[in-house]
Amino acid sequence: MRKPLKFLALGMAFYVSSALAQSSDTDPDWHESEVPAPPSFSIDHLIPIEMPHYVSLKFGVDPATLAIAPDGIVRYVMVTQNTSGSVTAMYEGIRCATGQVKTYARTSSGGAWSLVKDPQWHNLSDNLPSKHAIMLARQGVCDGRGAAASTVQDIIKALKR
Fold first, then answer.
1. Predicted confidence (pLDDT) at residue 103 exceeds the cutoff of 90
2. Which of these, 60, 90, 53, lies nearest to 75 by C-alpha position?
3. Which among 137, 161, 139, 134 is positioned nearest to 148, based on CA atoms?
4. What is the pLDDT of residues 13-43, one digit of tens each?
5. 63, 45 contact by CB (below 8 A)
6. How far apart are CA 9 and CA 143, in angstroms?
7. How far does CA 100 lie from the centroid of its chain?
8. Which residue has the higher pLDDT, 85 or 90?
9. Confidence band for 101, pLDDT divided at 50, 70 and 90
10. CB within 10 Å: which end of the chain, N or C, has fewer?
11. 27 vs 23, 71, 98, 123, 147, CA distance in Å?
12. What is the C-alpha radius of gyration for the chain, rounded to an integer number of angstroms?
């Protein structure tokens, strides 16, 4: 890439990340509602999440765990399965209004939930080990720019397309 284009790309990346950071402060009075305990989940009826071709893990969301809280957060259990069949899960929330995700709990090797000690919001576009949350947001959790889908049924319909 030539230098002027490289600087333009870096500048655009900075602008986008700055805009996302500012959007997290759009409502200074917003507070996250109390987070329910991690729900039980089943691997029998997972809705698959389309991932980039280079991702070897399979991701699916349990539709029975999807919930839209009054504060606008969509909470769910994301289940992953590796090529050997090992299954793990994460209890997470997506805040569409700010483009952020938070992990509340993970399953341990025995299947029991282990709470994250100090869960923090992270931008969906951050370079995390897995892009499953941004893929889930794009495929049905977030309706357009910044709003959570209207109902859980709308989310499920969008994810099944």
1. yes
2. 90
3. 137
4. 333 333 444 344 467 878 888 898 999 999 9
5. yes
6. 27
7. 7
8. 90
9. very high
10. C
11. 9, 11, 10, 17, 14
12. 17
Instruction: Kindly report, residue by residue over 40-61, the tens digit of the pLDDT.
Output: 999 999 999 999 888 889 999 9
User: E strands within 32-121?
Assistant: 47-49, 58-61, 67-68, 73-81, 87-95, 100-107, 113-115
- Cα separation, 159 vs 161, in Å, equals 6
- Enumerate residues 6+ apart whose C-beta is below 8 A from 21: 123
Q: How many CB atoms lie within 10 A of CB 26?
A: 10
Question: From CA 72, how far away is CA 69, in angstroms rounded?
Answer: 5
Model pLDDT, residue 24? 45
103's tokens = 């992990």
What's the DSSP call for residue 35? P
| Cα–Cα distance measured from residue 98 to residue 21, given in angstroms and rounded to the nearest whole number | 8
